[in-house]
Amino acid sequence: MTDSDLDNLFLRIVAREIPADIVAETERVIAIRDINPQAPTHVLVIPKTRYRNAAELAAKDPDLLAELIRVASEIAGQEGIADSGYRLLFNTNSDAGQTIFHVHLHLLGGEPMGGLTGGPRHG
User: Fold this and answer.
1) What residues act catalytically?
2) Which backbone phi and psi does 104 adopt, to 5 degrees?
């Protein structure tokens, strides 16, 4: 896939052109299970409008950024991981591991996550 194809992946999921396991949806956000989970619970919370990364989203639509976090928190409750704890993660740009340049928030939980230098299962 080219970068352009990857960038359009989430928009195609929003348009229901590509199937996904949808966990939650609002007017502005869709949440899907990650197809390569890094923890027992691994959900991607994605704005339906494309912003390249978390920094761009924060600058252009801070209310939408807040909605991503609110939806992730609600999903953590539904998944039964709110009390034990969960991690919210944005990868911003290539060196951080961002491979799809349409911002998305990772909700990870269901097992101990370790410290800041550690990560779920694969560090």
Assistant:
1) 104
2) -155, 145
The answer to whether residue 47 sits within a structural domain is: no
The CATH number of residue 78's host domain is 3.30.428.10
Question: What is residue 36's three-state secondary structure?
Answer: coil
Does residue 123 form part of some domain? no
pLDDT digits (tens, 9 = 90+) for 76-110: 999 999 999 999 999 999 999 898 999 999 999 99
Whether the per-residue pLDDT at 39 is higher than 50: the answer is yes
What is the longest distance spanned by two Cα atoms in the chain? 40
Q: Are 26 and 71 contacting, i.e. CB atoms less than 8 angstroms apart?
A: yes
- The neighbour count for residue 113, using CB atoms within 10 Å, is 17
Q: How many residues are present in the chain?
A: 123
Residue 19, in any domain of the structure: yes
Cα distance between residue 96 and residue 113, in whole Å: 18
Q: What φ, ψ does residue 118 adopt, rounded to 5°?
A: -90, 170
Half-sphere exposure at residue 115, Cβ-oriented, CA atoms within 13 angstroms: 1
**Domain of residue 23, residue span:** 1-38+62-94
* Structural tokens at position 75: 């999903």
